[in-house]
Specification:
Number of helices: 13
Shape: globular
Radius of gyration: 19 Å
Helix content: 25-40%
Number of strands: 11
Strand content: 15-25%
Structural class: alpha/beta
Largest sheet: 9 strands, mixed
Length: about 400
Amino acid sequence: MSSATRSGSTRKVAVVGVALSDCGRVDEATPYTLHAQAARRALADSGLARDVIDGIASAGLGTLAPVEVAEYLGLRPRWVDSTSVGGATWEVMAAHAADAIAAGHANAVLLVYGSTARADIKARRRTSNLSFGARGPLQFEVPYGHSLIAKYAMAARRHMHEYGTTLEQLASVAVQARTNAATNPDAMFRDPITVDEVLDGPMIADPFTKLHCCIRSDGGCAVLLVAEDYVADCASEPVWVLGAGEHVSHTTMSEWDDFTVSPAAVSGRLAFGRAGVTPGEIDVAEIYDAFTYMTLVTLEDLGFCEKGEGGPFVEKGRLLRDGGLPTNTDGGGLSAQHPGMRGLFLLVEAVRQLRGQAGAGQVRRADGTLPELAVASGTGGWFCSSGTVVLGR
């Protein structure tokens, strides 16, 4: 069932424009500059005129996002979304935009993001964050000093305890991400790494060493979704939004029922059900990977393997571009780019793979044809939120 059908409308929704801004080490740009770069490039990719855009979704910049971003881009949208749920933001926004387009509330919605997270720290315009704040429910955890990474580390240790998942299996996720990044000219790190190098790196939060953790980069990207009426005027092959789901579960660790289950267990089930497909039919998976454990447990929760079998599943190259389930084919947040809320990058890479525009990193099915179905699943906070989108040619 398509997102359009779910909304009670017959209008289908397609992604017709995707692009990255300058990424990696970008010392001389502002976040607004990266937003504008990505927006212009995505619009050029679509072949449509700017005045087609009547909706915008953005988060993470300014006091009144997306109002400030729209003004900077010279847009006056009649539909906006500023939902902010961390890394899952963009999959959730894509679902909202698809529903709005299907219902006729908008015709063309631009999702756009940009961040100079790396450059800001280098220039001492900001520091690393210990926590997201100390108000509300978080006041009961912040005094104990455990940071976001520590929360993921605790969850990983619980999975290891419950199911026997090993450090080597987690490390293999980072190794395969780096191998995929090797063919991506936009990836920040492309040199190969080994499991031993991951295990022997400096400890950040037990059991995560440095290479278990995402990189910090600058960069941005944009995605343009339109109603099917506009597809004939586009320069690129459309990629259809087939189904989407979203879910939030907790903000404090004490309210998380099971450290080995993420909200993707719900968002994934909804997305696949609405798309009318099964995990076994997916050709490419783009999974939010701030940490290696995030990839492993999300693959379980999306249904690519049984709960507790994520460790054996990720072994033996299954996540590589030519593996059984090509995953994070651009190198992911572990090796390619991670300027903050990375979820929009997942959609860009999924679309490029389905179009056959991934260059040397292009995935092919066993018969040599292009992939037909892809899933992008973003995670926010410390497994607090999840958005999953199924795309198809």
